[in-house]
Amino acid sequence: MTKIKTIGILTSGGDAPGMNAAIRAVTRAGIYNGFRIKGIYRGYEGLIHDEVQEFTTENVSGIVTRGGTILKTARSKEFPTPEGMQKAYETCVKEEIDALVVIGGNGSLTGARNFGMEFDFPVIGLPGTIDNDLYGTDSTIGYDTTMNTIMECVDRIRDTANSHERIFFVEVMGRDAGFLAQNSAIACGAEAAIVPEESTDVDQLAQFMSRGIRKSKKSCIVIVSESPKCGALYYADRVKKEFPEFDVRVSILGHLQRGGTPSARDRILAATTGVGAIEAIKQGQRNVMVGIRNNEVVYVPFSECIRTDKRFDKRLIKVLDELSI
Amino acid sequence: MTKIKTIGILTSGGDAPGMNAAIRAVTRAGIYNGFRIKGIYRGYEGLIHDEVQEFTTENVSGIVTRGGTILKTARSKEFPTPEGMQKAYETCVKEEIDALVVIGGNGSLTGARNFGMEFDFPVIGLPGTIDNDLYGTDSTIGYDTTMNTIMECVDRIRDTANSHERIFFVEVMGRDAGFLAQNSAIACGAEAAIVPEESTDVDQLAQFMSRGIRKSKKSCIVIVSESPKCGALYYADRVKKEFPEFDVRVSILGHLQRGGTPSARDRILAATTGVGAIEAIKQGQRNVMVGIRNNEVVYVPFSECIRTDKRFDKRLIKVLDELSI
Amino acid sequence: MTKIKTIGILTSGGDAPGMNAAIRAVTRAGIYNGFRIKGIYRGYEGLIHDEVQEFTTENVSGIVTRGGTILKTARSKEFPTPEGMQKAYETCVKEEIDALVVIGGNGSLTGARNFGMEFDFPVIGLPGTIDNDLYGTDSTIGYDTTMNTIMECVDRIRDTANSHERIFFVEVMGRDAGFLAQNSAIACGAEAAIVPEESTDVDQLAQFMSRGIRKSKKSCIVIVSESPKCGALYYADRVKKEFPEFDVRVSILGHLQRGGTPSARDRILAATTGVGAIEAIKQGQRNVMVGIRNNEVVYVPFSECIRTDKRFDKRLIKVLDELSI
Amino acid sequence: MTKIKTIGILTSGGDAPGMNAAIRAVTRAGIYNGFRIKGIYRGYEGLIHDEVQEFTTENVSGIVTRGGTILKTARSKEFPTPEGMQKAYETCVKEEIDALVVIGGNGSLTGARNFGMEFDFPVIGLPGTIDNDLYGTDSTIGYDTTMNTIMECVDRIRDTANSHERIFFVEVMGRDAGFLAQNSAIACGAEAAIVPEESTDVDQLAQFMSRGIRKSKKSCIVIVSESPKCGALYYADRVKKEFPEFDVRVSILGHLQRGGTPSARDRILAATTGVGAIEAIKQGQRNVMVGIRNNEVVYVPFSECIRTDKRFDKRLIKVLDELSI
């Protein structure tokens, strides 16, 4: 194992608030510890096509407050191929990059694992995704901010729902995981959440809403996890058919969920795991994701954190049920 | 003309942030000036069905910060009919309401005018709509808040648009008026706005965007006024067909534009026009809307303020054009 | 042990964002589980003077979004005395209150413990304080919101500090604990934090700042924990004397840190522990605080959670040091 | 008069949110109209010491959302001297700057006038100050944002004031003008405002507050304009002495009032006046400030806009009086 002198950093996959804070943390902690830092643009695409720039602390000045990622991000079709990986490796050799820090979600860390194994190359991952669907860390960078963004939006929708006494189906992101939907439903005082982890009986839902409305609730808000087949529009249509007397509306929050200045928690998570990534490299770790579990920095093997079935605590279903009476 | 002792207040039509601040102002200024105040729920519907409650200052305590309307709002199908109007009038008689303050937009003030003329009844209007499409006032209650809400959303979308180098078509409210779209486009630094007041040539738009992207702009955002036929989805589809290499996305902001704590400007507008409404009643005015023009309180005859072709300043088109190079 | 039928709820001590969400959760979960709920106003003062009102779900409708506490709060001088406690107990008897839920910080839970022991009365505590200085829970209700409020304020101060190239000492709350100061310093990208847990050498601080400024940092922000003797003003004066060429300013954030709509995380914490409090009563628990540790609901004996030396992780000092180069 | 080819731009005096949006607008509209644009750092100081950089549209990319000023700002002691002015002029000659756009408040525009007159040099001003104390424009860049920032802070303080039933004296900026204090008091539903334009009788104030508290108002908030002698601390002390039974607190909002992302209105004002500045230069105007009056762009001679006694509308005193009963 050669001594690591230069660390490349990239962001990959869907962008998440706090990625910039993580870039800043890795860059500053890296320089503090004597490494050279090189920023790689557009994720693995930029690694393949040598879009690389040396970073000083100046490059990351003032970015802690900004959403998105100054390194930009992309989903690369070429990287998973043997040719793509080979080109990416050649860029590392050419740029004298001895180790990579990859900030991203499930797909990005899978790519990181494959690259690290293929070329026996030190790769450290940071959990950067709004979906919170990575094992081994209590939270992912971006998740808390997105939850707060959804909450602000639903608080606004509640104002108009109350004024018009309407029913709203609000669709939120989360891919295959219901973290955002279930937890934002609790945070907003929503009446129900529809999540991929639980089957939802439309008849029961309609009965429940009907009771609520008759009990003179002012409005009803149901948070729905995005889904190709049965998102908010699907449930709204079903309920409208069943109860034509209800005034039912749909709101799909969309891409605004990805942006915005990161929350305090996401910035602290990014700072702590970013410093942890440099620490990991100093310790000779490789092919691990840096997470926070029980307020401790942990190093989780890639193979463990990208398991695809991380689930929110079932207890939260009880919480929402009891509070939405 | 009998001496006015009791004033009824209602909100009608689409809700707008600042309606509560206006209810508070009318109630407090009314009581300060010796009137009794009665709150009427659900707009003209509540006037028809006698959903009326006497208000003290307690009833409006703490509501200045809240979006929506504590009086709720509705669109009444019965009110425009002779029978509906008659029932509404009978509620006024029964409740000893001598004058009405109506907070709402175009349709609501049209109803107010008709009611006032039909029964020779003193009605004062306040401009309450996010669309800013009422003549005789520089701004309507709710417009400034909604503009800021759109701006915050588009700022967030810009973060992710930049990170992925994408094109976004963002659809905003405004009914038949382009105030929200044109002005929020300027506020957000958007590349273009599509408004009902101007015809938009898709080819020109696509050429413009193509130039921008090639000049290595990081992203492109086009704000589109809502429209039954050619909203954001329509333009996105057209551009996608023309330039399949662009990564085009759509975001429809929807009902969240109606909610949220009102901005300082909307609260001050609500306070000033609310006090102005009571002043108008004391002066014996009737069938006028209270507006602010050039920082002065003005009383605008209903027939004038509900003209349907209020337009934003064409100068703003030049501003956006010059800034989106 | 008599069967518990009626639960009294109160908030005590300094108010914290999320207390209303907790009141809502206890009330709704209580009613869901068949209990009567009585709201007690002004903390222990209201318990002494019988300021009690029966609560239905209506009483807590719409409060999840609001800062402060609808039950109001106070610091009672009478309650710690034997006479005060006796009167409080008599109110419980008179109002048929069989158990108490107390939402508050260190002092309030100490009172809860003493009352519970003195009268063999079931008391359950919820951790409600912005200071995060309670053992046995990863976070307290209000802490996350206040951290985000501080962050927003310091982000604003950074704008003007950068523009004028100034040094700011920003004083934040936290009583004897440095959680807010240390973590918000990391979140804001501050150059240093002064916390009660660590002694601060003014000479070292000044040297550090001097280096930073000379290295052409645009500005310098130091977060200072409130302290009767050596708060932000003290350090600013010392540095000004040492380096008269610096443009040094002070900002004391003050009481705005206590207010505002609670963050998603605080609302979820309030919901989860509120439901947990009712669960605890059903299980026959008493004299415990409900906390969340490692995403699990835990019941912590009062004697344990009110130990006065909870400290933030020393690792965070390293994080700030490495990132403020 | 030589044909103007190159325009220099600077920000001066206290920074204000929206200055960056104005820099962006001048730069982009300038380039659109065929001018070269040069950014001058640190206000008149940078003009004296030749801190000048050519700007392309890239230099102002993404700054519309940011508080502060990327050009930085300073108060120059040298510029008002003949030697200072001469050096500044020599920089213009050396840098081939043919016209200046100055963004700032009273003092900065006074300097602009003097410079323009002394060297017969074309200078255009933009109204950049949070204080709104410039004649000839309905609003200044920064004023609306700061009003909203104050409002958010006071809304938060209201939460805790209500919970503890306290009296707060909140000190806000505004220099010698009461715009911010009077209008934010109305926006926040404050009980009173103390402004430099009106003398305040402490006895009357105390009586008024005493009545309010006894009438069971939940809290009382008084907004106080900053003042060297009688700010919030002064009034709080006086009231405490008079009514020792009141729980009186002080909050001095301080420099956070200067920062933050600009509001929609400030961004639009900056865009419109920025485009207007370039238009003015094309028209051969000089020594005027660009303002907006009644939604029209106006050009106001420097000598007129810097008169020092701009006052808010007295009607607003009546509005606050009637609403604070």
UniProtKB/TrEMBL annotation, chains A, B, C, D:
Q: Which cofactor does it need?
A: Mg(2+)
Q: Where does ATP bind?
A: 14, 75-76, 105-108
Q: Name one GO biological process term.
A: fructose 6-phosphate metabolic process
Location in the cell reads:
Cytoplasm
Q: What keywords would UniProt list here?
A: Allosteric enzyme, ATP-binding, Cytoplasm, Glycolysis, Kinase, Magnesium, Metal-binding, Nucleotide-binding, Transferase
Q: Where does ADP bind?
A: 24-28, 158, 189-191, 215, 217-219
**Classification via InterPro entries:** ATP_PFK, ATP_PFK_prok-type, PFKA_ATP_prok, Phosphofructokinase_CS, Phosphofructokinase_dom, PKF_sf
Gene3D superfamilies linked to this entry: 3.40.50.450, Phosphofructokinase domain
Catalytic residue positions: 131
A GO cellular component entry from the record: 6-phosphofructokinase complex
Q: What is its EC number?
A: 2.7.1.11
Chain positions recorded as substrate binding sites: 129-131, 166, 173-175, 226, 249, 255-258
- According to the record, the signal peptide region is none
PANTHER family, alphabetically?
A: ATP-DEPENDENT 6-PHOSPHOFRUCTOKINASE, PHOSPHOFRUCTOKINASE
Q: Summarize the subunit comment.
A: Homotetramer.
Q: Report the family membership.
A: Belongs to the phosphofructokinase type A (PFKA) family. ATP-dependent PFK group I subfamily. Prokaryotic clade 'B1' sub-subfamily.
- What is the protein name for this chain? ATP-dependent 6-phosphofructokinase
Give the organism, scientific name.
Xylanibacter ruminicola (strain ATCC 19189 / DSM 19721 / CIP 105475 / JCM 8958 / 23) (Prevotella ruminicola)
